[in-house]
Amino acid sequence: MGERPVTLTIGTAGHVDHGKTTLVRRLTGTDTDRLEEEHRRGISIVPGYAELVLPGGRRASLVDVPGHERFVKNMVAGSTGVDAFLLVIAADDGVMPQTREHLDVLRILGVERGVVALTKIDAVDAETVELARLEAEEFLEESGIRAPVVPVSGVTGEGVDALLAALDELAESPAARPVSGLARLPVDRAFVLRGIGLVVTGTLWSGEIRAGDTLYTGSGLRPRVRGIQNHGRPAEVAYPGARTALDLVGIEAQEIGPGEVLLSRPIPATGLFDARIRLLGASRPLQHGARVRLHHGTRSVNARIRLSGGGELEPGGDAFARVRLEEPLILLPGDRFVLRSLAPQVTIGGGTVLDAAPAGRRPDPGWLEALESGDPARIIPQALVRAGGGMDVGELALVLGKEPEEAVSTVGRVPGVVRAGSMYALRETLEEARERLLETLERHAREHPESPELSVAEARRATGLPAALADVLMEELSGKEVRISSQGVSAAGAAGVPPELEAEARWLLEDLRGAGHEPPSLEPTPALALLLRWKEAVRVGGSMYAAREVAEKVIEEIKTACREEGEISLARLRDRLQTSRKYAQAWLEYADERGVTVRIGDVRVLTRRHR
């Protein structure tokens, strides 16, 4: 297959009319303004894309995002998945509002590597260029970003070589992206090409996509990849970090568009998640319960922020919060998002997803701190306790934000966690459950020596574990400390039936045999329970009990009468048994319960199975 090519996606950023598109055209030869309106107005409205060949031979993707304040939402979508920034500041204008907002967005998204292009140096004198450079460096220092400032002209080409050299240095240490595991591609464009069909584009966040793969959408559709292109060139594999175009079949154009996510396996969307949110220093305080616009990937939805401690979040501060979305999104732990106010529409902060499927009414700070630490030794034990004792691999993978195979390896390195079948649990949890089960079984055997078994359902409840994990525990204990039979679950060391109880049961059985067709009414006793367990006695109805062999003879009598006469009435059975209506009625109802007969009016007939 060869070595995976180095992929670098660079997002341009900066104030409107600072020359981003002109500079990209100078660097790549590509005009990224695709819309007629963009050419007419002279500004970018939607993100544009171009390939950049760097001096060292590496190829990078340039994303030219809009700079106008009205299109910052498109800038956020275009910045999704970028590895580094190319911040454009015009020498004749300096740092402007969208310069600051764009850099804020990039920092929120975790993009802190980049280069500053000081553009339009052909339009000002050398002194102005130097002042603009100093202002840009001061701005970067205030923002906590270290990046070179390179004077350049997109019109004359002056400084382009120096800018390319600075970008080439970035490409020497590309951002690490997971190659294996889940493939995620947020779609930023979808269109139909004549002779090809439906094409979608985006920056592949993680994993790999190959021609022939079946993908999944958040809405449950399953398109197949017929072909892959990278900047117009056919490819067999799309690698993480690369600008990717996919030719899809099995899906209609109206069923997919910008904002959709393509996945290599289905992931449930969520409308609620817990996160660490951070407010920008220039923002207003954020009130508990505030309604905002949340940007994630190439989608944006309205959301409500409920701060963990209530009250309000001060500018520059951070806090745990529960976020309720007005439309569901596909989120994984570690995903970043941007928050913008609804009015005025400005970027106010952002955050990181910690728990994409939170439990409980409020965020649990201790749990979120463990998730934020990224330490499996803290996360997994808490996750198992919160789940009620045990979790399967798939559940743990979602908590860890990993693929199941990777989760298995991670969990295996955490002390005190053991695998039980397909489940994982804390060793101490299983030991406590074992003790609870054995104590319950032994107590039950003492109190009910005639029937020392618990039903499987009762034994599961005794462990206090999820049913699947309880079954695994009982299976591991079977033959050692517990007995599992058709009658239920009992302690392996449970004492046998006391001799005096067995004798009492034998005397009772003789009484039932002597009663014949007229079963007596009995109160529940250990002796009767023992006979029922031995299947030597049956309940005929209500509190009436009969010996098993007596019941079998009565059933045969009913069958014979029905076969001879086609049916049997209460009076006919009474006469055949030479008993009273009371007992004849009880025996007929017993035959109905056994499925031997069915009542039709005042008579019974045999069911099909017994004819």
TrEMBL record:
Q: Which GO terms describe its biological process?
A: selenocysteine incorporation
Major place of residence: cytoplasm
Any one cellular-component term (Gene Ontology): cytosol
Q: Which GO terms describe its molecular function?
A: GTP binding; GTPase activity; RNA binding; translation elongation factor activity
Compartments (UniProt record): Cytoplasm
Q: Does the keyword S-adenosyl-L-methionine apply?
A: no
Extract the PROSITE patterns matched here. Answer: G_TR_2 (PS51722)
Tr-type G domain mapped to chain residues: 5-175
List the SUPFAM superfamilies hit by this protein, alphabetically: EF-Tu/eEF-1alpha/eIF2-gamma C-terminal domain (SSF50465), P-loop containing nucleoside triphosphate hydrolases (SSF52540), Translation proteins (SSF50447), Winged helix' DNA-binding domain (SSF46785)
Keywords annotated in UniProt: Cytoplasm, GTP-binding, Nucleotide-binding, Protein biosynthesis
Q: Which Pfam families match?
A: Beta-barrel_SelB (PF25461), GTP_EFTU (PF00009), WHD_3rd_SelB (PF09107)
Q: Which residues cross the membrane?
A: none
Instruction: Return the protein name.
Output: Selenocysteine-specific translation factor
Q: What is the originating organism of this protein?
A: Rubrobacter xylanophilus
Q: What is the lineage of its organism?
A: Bacteria, Bacillati, Actinomycetota, Rubrobacteria, Rubrobacterales
